[in-house]
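Changelog entry: the FMN-binding negative transcriptional regulator record was regenerated in this release. Current contents:
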Amino acid sequence: MHPNSAFRSEDRELLEALIDQVGFAMVFLTTPDGPRVAHTPIVSTGDGAIQFHLSRGNALTRHLDGANALAVVNGPDAYVSPRWYEKRDTVPTWDYVALELEGRVRKMEPEGLEALLHRLIERHEARLEGEAWRAAEASEETWRKLFTGIVGFELEILAWRPTLKLSQSKPDGVREAIAAGHEANGSPALAQLMRLVRP
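Regenerated C-alpha cells:
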C-alpha cells in the first residue's frame, strides 16, 4: 500500500467493483519452502470474503488451510509522462490501482467448490460474445478429473488495503491532462477512474 493517505479509499462499493471487474488475484504466503505466490481467478462473496481455487500441485495448496494470507488484485496502471504537464520541470511517475486483501484462509467443502466453479463460469461466459458455454456440456468424467485436481479456498478479509494512485496530488487541470494522456495512449480505464475518483 502506498504511504500517502490521499491514495486510499474507504469506498467499499468501488473496491467490490474492482474485484468483480478484474476477477483475478495473486495469493501470497510464506511457506516452509519460502515465500510463494499463486495466480487465480477470484469472486467476492459480498460479505467480506473472496473465494478461489488452486491446483492440488500448487506450492501453496497444502499450506493455505488455516493460514493468514495476502491476496492482491491489480487494476489498471500506466506510466505518467512529464510531457503531459504544462510545466515539464518534474519527473515521471506511475498511476495505478491495487487492492491488498489480508485474511484467514479455509479450505472449502466440495459443494462450495462446485458452486464457485459454476459462478466463475457463468460470470465470465456472460462477458463474451455469442452463445455461452454451459457446464452441462462437460461430461461427468471431465468434471470428476477437474475436482480431483483442484482445491477451493475462502479468504475471510480481515484487512482491506487499497491504493488508488491517480495523480490526486496534482491540480484539477493537470489531472485532466494526465487523464487525457492515459486515454490517448491506451489506458482508457485508468483515465475513467481518474475522472471518477476525486481527491
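Helices lie at 12-22, 61-64, 110-126, 140-149, 172-184, 188-196.
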